[in-house]
Amino acid sequence: MDNRFRAKGWLYLLPAILFLGVFMVYPLVDVFVYSFEEGFNFANQSFFGTGSYNYSYVLRDPYFIQALKNTFIIVIITVPLSTLIALLISLGLSSIKPLRELFQTVFFLPYVTNTLAVGLVFMILFKKTEYSDGLINILIEFFGGKGVDFITGPYAAKMFVMCFYTIWVVLPFKILILTSALASVPKVYYSAAEVDGTRPFRVFYKITLPMISPMIFYLVITGFIGAFKAYSDEVALFGTDLNSAGMNTIVGYIYDMLYGNSGGYPSYASAAAIILFAIVLTITVINLMVSSRRR
Amino acid sequence: MKIVLKNLTKKFPNRNKKVGGDVIAVKDFDITIPDGMLVGLLGPSGCGKSTTLNLISGLEKPTEGQVFFGDTDVTKLPAQDRGVGLVFQSYALYPHLTVEQNIRFPLENLRGNAKLTKDEMRERVHKAAKLVQIDELMERRPSELSGGQQQRVAIARALVKVPKVLLLDEPLSNLDARLRLQTREEIRRIQRETNITTVFVTHDQDEAMSICDMIVVMKDGVMMQAGKPQEVYDDPVSLFVAKFLGTPPINVFEGKMKDGKLYVADDAVLASDDFRDERDVYVAVRPEGFIVSDDGPLVCKMGRIEVMGRDISIVSEHDALLNDTGLIRSITGSDVVMDSGKTEVRFKLKPNKVFVFDKETEERIRFGVTDGQ
Ligand SMILES: Nc1ncnc2c1ncn2[C@@H]1O[C@H](COP(=O)(O)OP(=O)(O)O)[C@@H](O)[C@H]1O
Ligand SMILES: [Mg+2]
């Protein structure tokens, strides 16, 4: 009985296992293998030898170092900041009654808008051209500041726009999750706190925050993973030649190694992919450990 | 602390826009609750009990009327300044805090002169926990407690600030039957020990009757009757109150007053000068109001006999009966010997266990008995 039951269970899982095996596990293993094969060539499936040369090449490649640095800066700035801003906006949304739905829609708009379209808008806002300095620069100059070229100018300016953009793009989803998390905290806890004369900040810190903390952890973890995999947002702002813009990310580097102008190096791409995988895995494990300790 | 409610009315805007108008949850509520009493607020679901409680606690503001604690008008006072302890139906224990932290929570809110030191807090928490007998469980989380234990923690949290008034909203409804019996005694004990004026909401009349000093029966937002449980039971003002109190429930018959007699169908069950006017009425008889008697006037079809230890319960039927079950339940002492072969059982009625109500208004028609049955 027990055995038959178990066999049935496996049978039901079979389609998913097959699917994941073919499209997830096999490619992963394959990439892992490629990353140790030197000078692998797709066309004739040949390689010179095996070893860790691919890794040492990638880790010494200045473009990769730049991509690594960019990715880390984006992750470290945008994940906490976007979560915090989303939390503040959600708190605001759940404490107002009139026009709440209108605001919710407005905040959700970027989510349903195409990344490239949003990127275009950002270009118009930030880019300096022969004809215009861009809206932001006009504003800066209006208030007596000195305009900068955010798209092709100094690194800090470009990074600022990049982070601004990333936060803007990830915000709607986080607001959506957090407003529903806030709405799902039973009202009776607030009634109890009210009878006991709890001050608003204490209500937030002692009741609301702990109650929605699982959702915050979820957002932080998925936020980290998403930010480490950033690529399309960079393309939307700075175009496809991210290396020369100095704004490449790890995934961008992998793509360039495969298909870019300087591409055709699947071995290097594989090594970089495995390095990214290791980083994301480590960060996620740390995150999970921190969140389970808190409980 | 004495609680006085004066013409208290609470209207909610109707959510159903099509219907329009307001929902009147509490209507013109007038009552004085003496100091140190355990009062049961009793009524069917949706009759406005919780709303009344929230008006006393200050979580809701009345549309009209006033609330007094002692001689002070607290109507405009926010909940936190009223000095009430509130126990919610779902307990509302903070799941991420331990039992101790939950009980301490209200104390940590105190500011200014009322602020307590760590040691004072520990002592107060310990005292409250001991009162409800959960001092062994201080390090647990609410999810690691049984329903009854959670209930005690909620009471301890409500008591730790030494409130002037303790309010409990259906505190027993989430417990299983055995625990309910035990916990209601516990609430009685705690109330006696602390002597805090306590309002206890329930839809279970048995609960209210057994532990309260005073019960208040509500229906559709209106107070129907208030008084000592036994008094209300023995002297209901309306059919609703009579039907609401008592287990097994009262037996209601369709009846008629005529020529100084009270009829149930064709059986003249009681006689009184007050039955002169001809009028259709409801005749309600408590289960203990039936006396088995071979020449009794009320003739019923025999059902079965249930022996319940000290008492026996005779189940019978009558055409004029209006009970939902269709069965008359009468309780007599076990000394009554019944011939189980009979198809008919005859009862005499105890006049003080019979209530007559007007058919239209369902209000009580009082009568004095003349022929000394
Ligand atoms: N916040 C509210 N908004 C609208 N109607 C309400 C609200 N609270 C209670 N009511 C209505 O008031 C009536 C009394 O409710 P309540 O006091 O909760 O009854 P009880 O506690 O006796 O079951 C019900 O008809 C309920 O639908
Ligand atoms: Mg209620």
- Alpha carbon gyration radius of chain A: 24 Å
Biggest sheet, spatial arrangement of strands of chain A: 1-2
At the first level of CATH, what is the class of the domain at 36-103 and 170-294 in chain A? Mainly Alpha
CATH architecture of the domain at 36-103 and 170-294 in chain A: Orthogonal Bundle
Order of helices and strands of chain B: EEEHEEEHHHEHEHEEHHEEEEEEEEEEE
Which descriptors apply to this entry?
heterodimer, A: 295 residues, mainly alpha, MetI-like fold, two-stranded antiparallel sheet, 76% helix, flat, B: 373 residues, alpha+beta, Rossmann fold, 2 domains, six-stranded mixed beta sheet, six-stranded antiparallel beta sheet, 8 helices, binds adenosine-5'-diphosphate, binds magnesium ion
What does this molecule look like?
The complex is a heterodimer of chains A (295) and B (373). Chain A has 295 residues and is an all-alpha fold. Chain A has 13 helices and two strands, in the order H-E-E-H-H-H-H-H-H-H-H-H-H-H-H. Chain A has a two-stranded antiparallel sheet with strand order 1-2. Chain B has two domains: 3-243, P-loop containing nucleotide triphosphate hydrolases (Rossmann fold), CATH 3.40.50; 249-365, no CATH class. Chain B has helices at 49-57, 99-108, 118-131, 147-159, 177-194, 205-211, 229-234, 239-244, and strands at 3-13, 22-33, 38-42, 64-69, 72-73, 84-87, 165-169, 197-202, 214-219, 222-227, 251-258, 261-264, 267-271, 279-285, 290-292, 298-308, 311-317, 328-333, 344-349, 354-358, 364-365. Chain B has a six-stranded mixed beta sheet with strand order 6-7-8-3-9-10, with helices on both faces. The mean pLDDT of chain B is 91. Residues 12, 23, 25, 43, 45-51 of chain B line the site of adenosine-5'-diphosphate. Adenosine-5'-diphosphate (ADP) is lined by residues 12, 23, 25, 43, 45-51 of chain B.
